[in-house]
Design brief:
The structure is a homodimer of 529-residue chains.
Chain A lengths: L5 E2 L3 E2 L4 E6 L6 H4 L2 E7 L2 E6 L1 E2 L4 E6 L5 E9 L8 E7 L9 E4 L2 E4 L9 E3 L8 H13 L4 E5 L17 E5 L15 E7 L1 H16 L3 E7 L12 H15 L5 E6 L10 H14 L6 E2 L17 E4 L6 H8 L3 E5 L3 E2 L10 H13 L3 E2 L3 E2 L8 H4 L7 H14 L6 E2 L16 H7 L7 H8 L2 E5 L3 E5 L7 E3 L7 E8 L4 E9 L4 E3 L6 E8 L2
Chain lengths: 529, 529
């Protein structure tokens, strides 16, 4: 006898396809039942881990990366879930469906090859604030320039984060306190970590789908230390079971990235072996190869680990992105470079000007920078944790930068070390470029050398050179494009958000002169000679 | 028969006392004649090297550090200069005469023990611009907050520095070109490096004395690479003879510091052995132990060398001063952190705001920062090279900082790592200070750790704590002074130059709340409890 599963409707490329089967609801289905499905097309075989969604419902989620007919069959130690089979015809992608974002060289692209520009923001637990605020956050995001949001699976305890979520990811055994305990044991909270609360995850999924609808990727933080409930201090077995559960639920969502942790090195009860084991659990459970990285506190994770798809680092020195690109040969996202705001914590009170500067600084270093906002208000609704409204000065400028990037090369911007060089310092003689060849500063000082010697330029050779002056305010820039090529020169005020063509045609050796002012950039775009 | 020398008047403590003798004027007195004088008081014996000042005049200069009667006698291979003797009574110091500046722990003091606050500026060859401009520079300095000026002995060739000086330090043989040559040999200039031009040095001395009269130290750059006359490429023997000459002329000037070079590592024809030998020549010739350091371009000199009295470094990262203090156990002066201006060169176009920030940043790191100004004008009179007028926005703010330092502890400001810490991040729980004990970032990232975790505070324990927020804009500061001590809290706007008491009395654990804004500081001064 052939069993068949219930599908969630017609299948299309890069859309989540879900199969549901009825199965046992007694005992502990989360632990007792193992289940997987194999999807096949020709020689292709994709194994999907199923999960228990409560009420006797078991689900398999599949994210087709090829159109046409796929067959499937299920395997389980529960007879009711074993041996179901069928087929599904995957139609073409619907509008706006591009598949998961992948690393593409030192930048990112959607799986369908279209361009993805990584402009993140941070609202760690916006999804645990109740419907009204969550809808406001979604409305804000729909108007904002961000294409990614960093957010947690688990609730968060922290300054300005003492509220309880509406629900918990595990079965609640006993309620505890709302302030920071001397130890998790003394918090009073007790959960049955062996039983998930499917409704908690269904809500998370709804929010991830809401993000997809407005073109925002969910950089999902799987573990974090800001905890008084005990979710950060489960046993290794419980951690692994949690990771298998959440990944089996979410890996067929196209817009999910795996961030193993926020500030992994602040989780003092976990060792590097734990992290390595857990990374494997995520990768083994995810058949769709989502982006995966580990976000640090003090000490960066080893980004040369080939299981990590990109660098998701915390550092205020955005100019070092150029070095990390070279060191790790992966796209770099500085996912915490401090936030625009005014709270007491030093990471949460840089000015809008400074945050916009770090965005530009990271951009011309060939990487990506993530936004956050931490202005205090009496309701303690700070964007960085709870979402809500954005009031800072940086957002509109980040939108302006995004527009420039969209108009720029499809390949993204790579650092161009030898262009946009300042005027030769001693007329006709030795210039700083020569000096650089003689005395190479140590790597940690290359940012310094750059600051003292020339301005960072990024682009694509022979086509596009974007030189950013940062807080410097030169009145001139020597055009150092390749010989026999002509360019149009545009002066950009990154703060005032203006662009003005200052020369219709320049060639190597020309000198551009303009009004000095901090936070300007010059864009050279190739024209016919 | 006893010869006697002509003195330049009554002697007083810390004033230059000069003896003149007539001697041979034929041959090459600079090379042929060796001469020295020994000054004695009790067991003290100070040996002074004499020099030829042209026209048959030989001089010995002495800088008495003790009052009372000193005797002297001269020694020379020229009989006319040998065996002169006499005595001089040194009276008390005249008003404003404090002696040379010395390193005092990690700060500086005059030899008489009074406080010296090192606030430098840079005008490399202001002394070679003709009387009108030089007088204007002196008038500017008299009104400015600077207590030190970095300046060169030799003329300078560079962008905006193509003019010829009125005179040269060596006898001119043949005039050459005014632009940068392919090599010094091709410049056309020829000098007799074996014959000094005393008038050149007399003019330099006049300007150094002019500086002393307005309380400004001359941080004298003995060698530099910006040269088309050949002064940077003399033989080792000529270098040594030049150093002996200039030091024997100038070491009795109280307000001279020896800066062996500007950007020593851009002088490619000199080796580290050369620098080590030349340092010894200066020290051997200077009986008065003036401050001595070596200023770098790319690669800092080894400041652990015990012959160097202080760190005179070039770096834009002023927060690293705290690390250099610890590493070298000497006072640190960041003598080139980029200049306020608008020229094309990246080191010469930071904003006034950024330069003032670097001054404060370096101050709360326990060190000192040097000013420079490089605004373009059509006459190419840029302060950084030629002096003239100051038009930048930083000078008045630097004066404001100087006033605060003058009102502060006589010992100067030392970094206070554990005070001025931000509010404990998780109420009642783990705070970042604990984290710092667990995970120590690598040294080159300590600036980062500081930027993310707490604000730099400098002061003197139990008395004075100055916390500077830099570009950050917190709305609050947790008072983290020692228990059972009371302090008055003053909010300082470093840019608007305002100070306002925001709490007459605070104790540990109090929270100061104020309007958030970049570039503010909070000063906590001890009051009676």
């Amino acid at each position: 006898m052939t069993k068949s599963a219930t599908a969630n409707g017609a299948a299309s490329l890069w859309a989540t396809f879900e199969l549901t089967l009825e199965g046992p609801s007694t005992g502990n289905p989360f632990q007792d039942v193992q289940l997987r499905a194999i999807f096949r097309q020709g020689d292709r075989e994709v194994q999907v881990t199923g999960f228990y969604d409560g009420d006797g419902q078991y689900k398999f989620r599949f994210l087709p990366d090829v159109t046409g007919v796929w067959t499937y069959e299920t395997h389980s130690n529960a007879p009711a879930l074993d041996g179901a089979s069928g087929s599904v015809e995957v139609g073409p992608a619907k509008a706006g469906h591009h598949g998961p974002v992948r690393a593409s060289g030192l930048h990112f692209r959607y799986a369908d090859g279209s361009r993805y520009i990584n402009i993140g923001t941070t609202a760690y637990v916006w999804n645990l604030q109740g419907d009204e605020l969550e809808q406001q956050t979604l409305a804000t995001l729909a108007e904002a320039p961000f294409t990614k949001i960093r957010m947690c699976v688990f609730p968060k305890h922290y300054r300005y984060n003492q509220n309880e979520p509406d629900r918990y990811p595990f079965a609640l055994v006993k309620e505890g306190g709302h302030t920071w305990p001397a130890s998790i044991e003394q918090s009073g909270w007790q959960f049955d970590f062996d039983r998930f609360e499917p409704a908690y995850f269904r809500h998370l999924e709804q929010r991830i789908a809401d993000l997809a609808a407005i073109g925002v990727e969910a950089d999902l933080i799987l573990l974090h230390p800001y905890d008084r409930w005990g979710f950060s201090q489960m046993s290794a077995e419980q951690d692994d079971r949690y990771l298998r559960y959440v990944v089996s639920r979410l890996s067929a969502f196209p817009n999910v990235w795996w961030s193993m942790a926020n500030e992994y090195d602040f989780m003092f009860n976990k060792t590097l072996d734990d992290w390595n084991r857990m990374i494997d659990v995520v990768i083994d459970t995810d058949p769709f190869d989502h982006l995966l990285s580990v976000h640090n506190g003090f000490g960066p994770f080893d980004y040369s680990d080939e299981r990590l798809t990109h660098v998701s680092i915390q550092r205020p020195y955005t100019d070092r992105i150029a070095l990390w690109r070279e060191e790790f040969k992966k796209p770099v996202s500085d996912d915490e470079c401090c936030y625009e705001g005014d709270i007491g914590e030093a990471w949460g009170n840089i000015s809008g000007k400074e945050l916009v500067h770090r965005f530009w600084d990271g951009t011309v270093a060939g990487g990506y920078v993530t936004h956050g906002e931490t202005f205090y208000n009496d309701s303690e609704t700070l964007w960085w944790a709870k979402g809500g409204k954005l009031i800072g000065e940086s957002v509109s400028r980040i939108a302006f930068l995004r527009q420039i990037l969209e108009e720029g090369p499809d390949e993204g911007l790579d650092p161009m070390p030898h262009t946009g060089h300042h005027k030769i310092m001693m007329a006709g003689g030795l210039d700083h470029a020569d000096l650089r060849q003689l005395i190479i500063p140590p790597p940690e000082e290359q940012g310094w050398a750059r600051a003292m010697v020339h301005f960072a330029t990024a682009g694509q050779p022979h086509r596009y050179y974007l030189t950013y002056f940062g807080g410097n305010q030169p009145r001139e820039l020597a055009v150092a494009v390749p010989p026999e090529e002509a360019y149009r020169a545009t002066l950009i005020d990154t703060w005032e958000m203006t662009k003005s063509v200052i020369a219709e045609k320049v060639v190597r050796g020309d000198m551009l002169v303009f009004a000095p002012k901090p936070y300007q950039a010059v864009l050279l775009e190739r024209i016919e000679a």
